[in-house]
Amino acid sequence: MRAFEYASPTSTKQALSLLGAASGGALVLAGGTDLLALMKDDIVHPKRLVNIKEIRELDGVASSSLGLRIGALTTLADLADNVNIVKDYSALADALNEAASPQIRNMATLGGNLCQRPRCWYFRNGLGLLPKDQSGKDLVATGENRYHAILGNDGPAKFVSPSSIAPALIAYGAKIRLIGPNGKRELPLDKFFVIPKTEDQREHDLKRDEIVTEVVLPPAADLKSAHYEIRQKDAFDWPLATAAVVFQMSGSTVQSARVVMGYVAPTPWLSEEAAQAIIGKSISEETAKAAADAAVQAAKPLSQNAYKVQLARVAVKRAILKAGGAA
Amino acid sequence: MPDFAWPTAEDRSLIGKRISRLDSPDKVSGRAKYNYDYHPSGPMLFGKVLRSPHAKAKILSVDTTAAQKMPGVEAVEVIQKIGGTVQWAGDEIAAVAAVDEGTAEEAIRAINVKYEPLAYLVSDAEPPAGSAEAPGPMSEDDVWDAIDNQMPERQFLEYLKEHGVSFHPEEDLLKQFKGDGASDAILDALRKAAYHEPSGSGTRSPYQKAAATTQGDPDKAFAEASVVSEGVYGTSVITHCCLESHGSTAEWPDKDHLFVHISTQNVSGVPSQMAEPLGVPAANIRVHQDHIGGGFGSKFSADRWDITAAKLSRKAGGRPVRIMLERDAELKVAGARPSAYARVKVAASKDGSITGWQSQSWGTGGPGGGGSPPIPYVFSIPNQRKEHTAIRNNIGPARAWRAPNHPQAAVITMGALDDLAAKINMDPIDLWLKNLSLTGPRQKVYEEEFGVASDLMDWKQKWRPRGQNISGNVARGLGLSLHTWGGRGHASQCDVNIHPDGSVDVKIGTQDIGTGTRTTLAIVAAETLGLPIEAIKLYIGDTQYPPSGASGGSTTPGGVSSSTRRAAVEAREALFAKVAPALNATPEQLECKDKTVRVKGDSGRSLSWKEACSKIGAVPITARGKNPDKEHPPDLTNSGVGGVQMADVEVDMETGIVKVRKMVAVQDCGLIIDLKTAESSCYGALTMGISYALFEEKVMDQATGTMLNANMEFYRLAGYNDIPELVVHMMTGKGYDERGVIGLGEPPVISPGAAISNAVANAIGVRVSYLPLTPDRVLAALGQKAGA
Ligand SMILES: Cc1cc2nc3c(=O)[nH]c(=O)nc-3n(C[C@H](O)[C@H](O)[C@H](O)COP(=O)(O)OP(=O)(O)OC[C@H]3O[C@@H](n4cnc5c(N)ncnc54)[C@H](O)[C@@H]3O)c2cc1C
């Protein structure tokens, strides 16, 4: 690992000035479970780390009639234990419990989870997020792409978004709040994830001197929801495909729906097609299957990952059935 | 002459019982010190290696000026010859030693290397038709390459014998080869190798065809067969992924003596490997290791980085220099198991009697190509035709991996037999039993083992024909395999000392590679001397003790138990001679039992162990035992075991995800010293087997020439949750015990891949050709079946 400066501010104000002053060479450090690995592998080399874990205002969950406000520093382990999440946000609770490993969940923060960098093995081998060879040829399109994107992969970005928490949050309509030198802003969480077109763009709508402060979840007490993941190994492994679904029901009929897939695209993938397919229907094997087919209809698999189309389809189908009460 | 034979069943109080490993408390509490944990008393330097980013490139220049000047850098060493060629990404170029890791990293980044990148191949896909060329004689360059590429010695020797050389190896040149790491056996083979004119074009095809071998009359067998079953089978390149990576700490207490803490399976062998390249007598090199965190066949030799650490230390005035590989280097360069794939045809009669075998196989072991798998495995099918093409590519060198070539051969052979059984609607057990006469000397063992295994698996109850046990999305299936291995004890020497105060120590230059060697030694010595295990003080893992062979090929238990037994019996006899007068008896009348020395059959005439030892006098009793030792019969070790394994799996038909539900392993290994560690060996092997069956694969990228998953996220190893119920049964008693001690490290790891692959085929109704059985492969096989 290369040498770096280390700062540990206790307020967001201090943190912002420390981030700005290093003129692009500073990075926010939260739980460090991703950032330190990136530094050891020499993928990122910040001049300065700004540790935000001493900023108390960024930690903790507040519940009100408007829903939940989750501080960016809240760990995945604490979130998984939060009574409100366990009670009303079962898709999120499941996603939290299945993510990574207990050790990592104890360290990993929600802000860090949303801002973590892709696990694309070309990227992690120092070949860039949009890896190309010297002649400019896309390395992923013709290379080892078994874990890469099947949707949203028309451009140079073919990695998959790494958070298994984000799809569940997006399914509930979460918003993300940020603070920067010019003040605060808020945006729907799905808009926070962007598909980069050039190597110097990030896969987040996050400026170098901005900090994620919190995530806001609307109330969900009267919603049906579920999360389904497909992983090869039972633990300490990355999912191959996930799906989170949230339904507003009217009797046994789906009135409104959000279906979000993970690990299929460079961003969490909100499927309008799947939602439309199930709205107005009751939940059954047949309607779940139809919605699942709709979810992957636009998929364009690469040379090695056609199987992921099937996995994504199954994840959506099983998530819908699980939300509908099937085991 | 004293009787060295193993005690009979009635006379054993420790041998064959379930005894907990002596090193467990140290390991689980963190007291056990691995080589990584060694911290010299003085300040240590950290060595780092600069590695090639190219899969194949000529080294044009290496400029270390900037690194040399960096504060904190104490020594710099260029490893490659300028003008030489590196053959894999990650190969060692140069190294530095510095006061801390950060400085060492900065320094290797400051080394400026100019490469001329060359064309390379990292794929091991089936060779295009007609691409393979016949092997020719080795040129001088080929020999340099073979040495640099760490071609396995056996393969090297066989190649020289078969194909000769196209140059005249003068003694001067041989000396240089030796300096580069060639063994005496290789030098000898080079001297004797036949000379042939260099062969044609100069550019070599990466595809090298071995001569086809034919046995019996395969054409007739296939023409007359009532059934012919065809299939493709194989297993990918995997790595050893030792949890303690390769490496060492080297220091020079004075300018003539080297002291090395090295992670090795071969303590006694390291000095002579390091002597030549360092220019010091082997006798001046001391090697020490307490515990090793995994080797699996990849740690028999002092590696280039170990030699480099010693050179850096010498340059730095003898200060200790540590080079332990980083995780990515460990996976990229420190060893891989060759791949093997084959197109197979099996001929049989309607009743399942196998009459013919045809195979076209291919695979890679890196730049050396790799040998052909021993197929058909175990079953010597009367009529055979086999062709093998070795792929010489740039994925890095292969190393022995537990039971070299056997797991691959088992996957290919047992898969082909299983497909045949399915084709004729036969329960695989019946097909295997029907053809057991083709398995040779272990036939009766297999028969007994099949009985035990099928009971433990409840096979007859649970087995269904292919694809007929599916409910909802879940398919279940059973599969089986069998295997064999040698396992005769290696050369070993051991000292047993009995001191006048009654203390006993055992000194032996072996190593406990996690297999329970310490426990074996203590049990043998304690049993022989009638003492509890705690009474034996063990000294192992150091070249100060009598030399003992490398721990590989399941040779350690047979070797060390034999030498220890002989030493302990000799020591006991010497003690009897000293004690006999005090008991008014002749030495022959005495026995050691229950911490006493006593007259056989006369419990009144007995001395406590301590009293007895007080008769020794001032000088301790010292006895040296050896293996092999024809002068002190009987032979205490043996060779040749058989094992049968069965797997019960569950496959999600929609996702292609395979879960193993249960594994059964039934295994013999002659006389078992410690039943508990023997069973543990099998549990460990099954765990490793599940891991390579389902998850492990060295993923190489042709566009960049590098390994993409050189980490433990995407180089997946089975975790705790992936390991199901494991049932192990060791064959013991009559027919087994009297064979003597046989090793167990390799055999149980051979069959899991084949058994799991067969179980998956049984579950889903179609063969998934290659391991690991990943969801993409399972779904593709299901898709082909649906489309067919
Ligand atoms: C083996 C393994 C398995 C894993 N499996 C999963 C999984 O199944 N699902 C899953 O979702 N994740 C998984 N992870 C990833 C893990 O969840 C993330 O590493 C973790 O959530 C990152 O959080 P952190 O607080 O440690 O972030 P850090 O490592 O501290 O930071 C990560 C990135 O986010 C930035 N950052 C952090 N906080 C903020 C903030 N408040 N504002 C702006 N930028 C910020 C940092 O600058 C850095 O770029 C796995 C990780 C490992 C190692």
TL;DR?
The complex is a heterodimer of chains A (327) and B (788). Chain A is 30% helix and 21% strand. Chain A has 13 helices and twelve strands.
Biggest interface, chains and residues, is: A-B, 33 and 33 residues
Tally of distinct domains of chain A: 3
Determine the number of helices of chain A (DSSP H or I, runs of at least 4 residues): 13
At the fourth level of CATH, the homologous superfamily of the largest domain in chain B is Aldehyde oxidase/xanthine dehydrogenase, molybdopterin binding domain
Give the topology.
The complex is a heterodimer of chains A (327) and B (788).
Chain A: E1 5-7, H1 12-21, E2 26-29, H2 35-40, E3 48-51, E4 61-64, E5 67-71, H3 76-81, H4 83-88, H5 90-98, H6 102-107, H7 110-115, H8 121-124, H9 166-171, E6 175-180, E7 183-188, H10 189-192, E8 211-217, E9 223-230, E10 241-250, E11 253-262, E12 269-270, H11 272-278, H12 285-295, H13 306-323
Parallel strand pairs in A: 1-3, 2-3
Antiparallel strand pairs in A: 4-5, 5-8, 6-7, 6-8, 9-10, 10-11, 11-12
Helix pairs in contact in A: 11-12, 12-13
Chain B: H1 24-29, E1 45-51, E2 57-63, H2 65-69, E3 73-78, E4 85-86, E5 92-98, H3 101-109, E6 112-117, H4 140-148, H5 153-163, H6 171-179, H7 184-192, E7 207-209, E8 213-215, H8 218-224, E9 227-235, E10 238-239, E11 247-254, E12 257-262, H9 270-278, E13 285-288, H10 304-315, E14 321-324, H11 327-333, E15 336-337, E16 340-348, E17 354-363, E18 383-391, H12 406-423, H13 428-434, H14 443-457, H15 459-462, E19 470-471, E20 474-485, E21 492-498, E22 504-507, H16 517-529, E23 536-539, H17 556-579, E24 590-593, E25 596-599, E26 602-608, H18 609-614, E27 621-627, E28 641-652, E29 658-668, H19 675-694, E30 725-731, H20 752-764, E31 770-771, H21 775-787
Parallel strand pairs in B: 1-14, 9-31, 12-13, 17-18, 22-23, 29-30
Antiparallel strand pairs in B: 1-5, 2-4, 2-6, 3-5, 7-18, 8-18, 9-16, 10-15, 11-12, 11-14, 16-17, 19-20, 20-28, 21-22, 21-27, 24-25, 25-26, 28-29
Helix pairs in contact in B: 5-7, 12-20, 16-17, 19-20
The structure holds flavin-adenine dinucleotide.
